[in-house]
Amino acid sequence: MRVSIHKHISNPEHFKQQLLSWSQQFREVVFLDSNLYPQEYSSFDCALAVDAFTSLKTDFHNAFDDLKQYQQTTKDWLFGYLTYDLKNDVEVLKSANFDGLNFPDLFFFQPKKLFLLKGDQLEIQYLLLCDDEVEDDFEEITESNFEPFVTLSGVEGAGEVQQRISKELYVEKVRKMLEHIHKGDMYEANFCMEFFAENAIINPLEKFQKLNAISQAPFSVFFKNNKQYVLSASPERYLKKVGESIISQPIKGTSKRSSNPVEDEKSKQFLESDAKERAENIMITDLVRNDLSHTAQKGSVEVVELCKIYSFLQVHQMISTITSKLDAQYSPIDVLRTTFPMGSMTGAPKISVMKIIENLEETKRGLYSGSIGYFTPEGDFDFNVVIRSILYNQENKYVSFSVGSAITSQSIPEKEYEECLLKAKAMHEVLQ
Asked: For residue 17, what are the contacts with CB-CB under 8 A and spacing of at least 6?
């Protein structure tokens, strides 16, 4: 059981920073920030969950069954992540590539303390075992004099950010993918490469604040599990459940922003009318429709928006919105299980593609192209796609971010490479 307390917040933006700053004392932290991005399906502007009362940490074996049991027994708020490698639980697949981060395949926790902010209204939900701490905590938060962009005292260095795959090798690998497409093994695949630094000592809070400031993405996350961090500026929603409504919003199609309004509009128009980008998006929309149909009421899968252009600080993106109504015989976890990993990060047909990219990529994806989000006590949920994100293992001083692009029959390897560099720009900037 939780106690629920409501407060009026006079300066929500300032309060968000105070909340994030205060949260750093805890071992487990999930801070979700929509950055007030105008979006139809938003439940709150910001959420903070800290301090695990219970948690679930596991590898991919029976991961979805374990999660289902955990979610159904706690019937409470749960925050955490699903890594891309849970594909091995859903299908007969494996992940044998190099992994410098070593995060568990799945991690969720039931927070003792939870803050939900919408407009200037704050709801605080504490488990009964610590509800006597609410007022003291609130005072501590509002009096905390956070310094944005605090740097660590002492040495901070991310070593040299290196690229796991050279341009030449990237082009060669994309050519191999094109051969698979021409042979009919697949139509479209998301191919990713890693940037990394060893012996990296970074201040995760500061890096997140910088990344968030230059991206202001609707699905930003600061995640901490002891020494493991995710600093995410994701623009993409994977899946949301509200009652029986399921919403998926895959992104496929990217073009760059320009400070010149005329050029910027041109870039946007170009993306909107680009046949290749539209074809990519439509293929994935079709795949998502198929995925959702496994748990949907008959005839309820609907494409609400097709290939709509949304603008973010760094890029323009093409996004489609697909909805369905959940058939009562299926649980919330069944929806995740039958749609995971998300189509925008795999390709079509999904299983064939996952085998091909496993062979061509050099790194285990782990939490990159997985998902971070939460469940409510009622079994609703909302999950992002972990892209435009920096992952950091403080213990082994390894920092990593990956980027990818969709390869189709019309792909020009050099152009795909340029798209990857465009997506890597914000993370590069933050780590330099």
From this structure: 146, 148, 209
70: enclosing H helix or E strand: helix 63-74
CA distance 263 to 265: 5
Q: What is the DSSP string of 328-363?
A: TTS-HHHHHHHHPSPGGGSEESHHHHHHHHHHH-SB
Phi first, then psi: give them for residue 379, nearest 5 degrees.
90, 10
Three-class SS state of 410: coil
> Per-residue pLDDT for the chain (432 aa), expressed as one digit of tens each?
899 999 999 999 999 999 999 999 999 999 999 999 988 888 999 999 999 999 999 999 999 999 999 999 999 999 999 999 999 999 999 999 999 999 999 999 999 999 999 999 999 999 999 999 999 999 999 998 766 544 444 446 657 899 999 999 999 999 999 999 999 999 999 999 999 999 999 999 999 999 999 999 999 999 999 999 999 999 999 999 999 999 999 999 889 899 999 999 999 999 999 998 999 899 999 999 999 999 999 999 999 999 999 999 888 999 999 999 999 999 999 999 999 999 999 999 999 999 999 999 999 999 999 999 999 999 999 999 999 999 999 999 999 999 999 999 999 999 999 999 988 988 999 998
Tokens matching residue 367: 């939490």
Cβ–Cβ under 8 Å, residues 53 and 2:
no
Which stretches does DSSP call E strand in 139-236?
162-163, 188-197, 219-225, 228-234
Backbone conformation region of residue 273, classed left if phi is above 0, alpha if psi is from -120 to 50, else beta:
alpha
Residue 61: how many other CB atoms lie within 10 Å = 10
Judge residue 356's burial from the number of C-beta atoms within 10 Å of its C-beta, 0-12 exposed, 13-18 middle, 19 or more buried: buried
Which of 156, 193, 170 has the alpha carbon at shortest distance from 430? Answer: 156
Q: 148: how many CB neighbours lie within 10 A of its CB?
A: 12
Catalytic site positions:
236, 252
- Residue 361 is encoded by which pair of tokens? 């990529």
Beta bridge partners of 196: 162, 400
Show Cβ contacts of residue 38 under 8 Å, excluding neighbours closer than 6 positions.
none
C-alpha distances (whole Å) from 140 to each of 19, 101, 134, 271 are 10, 34, 10, 47
- Beta-strand runs (E) in 215-342: 219-225, 228-234, 237-242, 245-249, 251-256, 302-311, 315-325
